[in-house]
Protein: Phenylalanine--tRNA ligase beta subunit
Organism: Leptospira kemamanensis
Amino acid sequence: MKLSVDWLNEFAPLAQIPFEKVLEKINTSICEIDDVEEFKSHLTSVITVKIKSLEKHPNAEKLQTTIATDGTKDYQIVTAATNVNVGDIVPLALPGTKLDGKEILDSELRGVRSQGMYCSEKELGMALESSGVLIFPKDTTLGISVRKYFLWEDTILTIDNKSITHRPDLWNHFGFARELASQLQIPLHHFPLQADTKWESGNDGLTVETSEHAHAYYVCSIQNVNITQSIPKIKSRLEKCGIRSINNVVDVSNYLLLELGQPTHFFDRSKLTATSFTVSKSKAGDSLALLDDTSPTLQENILLIQNGNTAVALAGVMGGKDSAVTDSTKDIVMESAVFKREDVRFTIRKTNIRTESAVRYEKGLDSYTCLPVIKRAVQLLKENGNPNIKVFTPQGFNHTESKTVTIETNLQFLRHKLGKKITLPEVTDILQRLGFAVTTKDESLSVVVPKYRHNYDVTIPEDLVEEIGRTIGYASIRTEALSMAVETPIRNPLRELERRVKQFLALEVGFNEVYNYSFASATDAKLEVGYESSSLKIANEMPEDHAFLRNSLYPGLIKQAKSNQDRFESVNLFELGRTYHKQGNGPELADEKRWLAILSLSKHKPNDLSSIEQEFLSLRETITELFLFLNLPNFVWSKQSKSHFHPNASLVLHYDGKEILELGILHTRFSDLYDVKRRVLLAKINMETLVEIWETHGRNSHFIPPSHFPQGQLDLSLLLNESEPTESFANLVRTLKIPELESVYVQTIFQGESVGEGKKSVTYRFRLMSYDKTFTQERFKELSDSLVTTAKDNGYSLR
């Protein structure tokens, strides 16, 4: 939003205060300023001059040599303009002026000196196209800057809209000046809402039907208007705030919007088909030709202004084209209304039309300005070229005219919330300056909120704390340490476990933690078949991709992998999060489950099964290290099919007979569904079950004193069927109860022509440790023979 400092000065004497102090007060107590700039400052050196003489250029057929004067000094100017004559008063850009990025120079054109350039409306930024030099009226003062002539000598403040989205009273010059005057403790000396107007008797035939779709709605008939250009004051102020001047009637409506923040609208009386007005809602399929030359097809329940049975405006957003004011308009109907902000927001969302009026209505205006703004409009119309208009008594209704908001509080509450001792007179003075009516008794306060603040803005005692705090300045409130007892915090085992898991995955093995939305699509909800029936659909309107609460962490991780698969060779992710499950349709709340999900994206081609198996084994080893890191060594891996994993690449981990973790390679149907080009390795830990196990066993000591003797190891390669699990032989070896056997795991898996079709070579590594003597060759041979014999006796072939 743009504010004119010159316009603000009309309401409050800001010029009496250093401008830097004014800016500081705005930034610290009212809102944020995005920019401060002098309006059209580059035109300061463009002055008004009168052409004294005009001759043909001696060396150029299409150029003319002129002498112009600013009243005290003459300038020789060479021009190609054909519309200038002796005696014309024109704008002259002196050397050093920059127009359209080009600097005007004191130079020679075909051997004749030129001390500047005459300017057109286009070059002054007043029009997109122009046919020649701008000619001023004959009585124009010479030697003045065009900034002064067009009332452009002004400073423009650009306000950050987000910082005042809760303050509809600040979206206009008078409201902003009123707020600034209270903060700077200076008087207001102009009150446009107190304009006095005498109505003609009667309503000139107009009637308004009472409607619940508006807080207030008024119309009044105005006769004998004369459509022409606006006076310079109104035209320049609109331009400085970014609004194009149209004519002296429409400009008044825009001027009121910027001055008082109250949208209004003018209808051409001759184009209206009836004399009655009402506020109603659209039916699906209705259409309305608008001022922006569009004719949108409307959805149901969009707020409309009806003239008889004809829609003439999108209420609070934009007027209709068929009833617009034109150059031939003689009689008008003025509308002043306040609509419900919810209805205006609905219209904006459904039509995608966002106007300056709609921006103000959606903040929540109060209806108290509806009639005063009509009086101010009449005053402006008379000033702006319509001194002979006849204005009839406004017709309409106001449902919220008697609304008041009173807040009860006390000094102790205000002090406690502010963190500063403040006296009752100080509180009273601040609130009264801000427009509040205050009644005190002992240390209690009864505060009546001003009408321009009581809709959605100041409604509870905490709002008064904010008003006092920003007025005294937050910097004046001393920073103090919190006064609180130092107590031993309640232990949270789940949080402790989560921190340890994060530490291992992020710092020890280099995985990246991600955070995904707790929402999912219908497709996401079907990934884990076991949870599909407990999916929880969101009742309110949401995008299709966010229609459910998630019942699995996998889809979010898979989508993250898809986004990064072409950017990074290595994609290793994990997420700690909740899933949501509801059984049945009863009133009970949905269950929340806490999970850790892990994803590792394969670095190899999808058909390179041997390499992918190695990555699968590597991820299983990482998970094994995680459990050892948590001091939980006694886990058991077993094969178990899951519908979302490949049948031969799906494992679960048990501890104390409880299933804690699943690990597998995502089934290709889901890889195709989510458009993931590489194989996806996934794992999921039930954190609620894990924390129970960790609390029971994780704090036990599993320490084994290191042996004084060196460790040994044996490798044994067996030929297995391609679909045969590798865990079977490892479990078989464990049943032998070999005293020196510390661990057994799969070292490598090989497939190829050399091992035959449908076969795989699996190399097992046996770690051996003796605590009473050094291994001998005889013991190594004895153990090796025992392993070979066990393999042969159980039908395994050596490789």
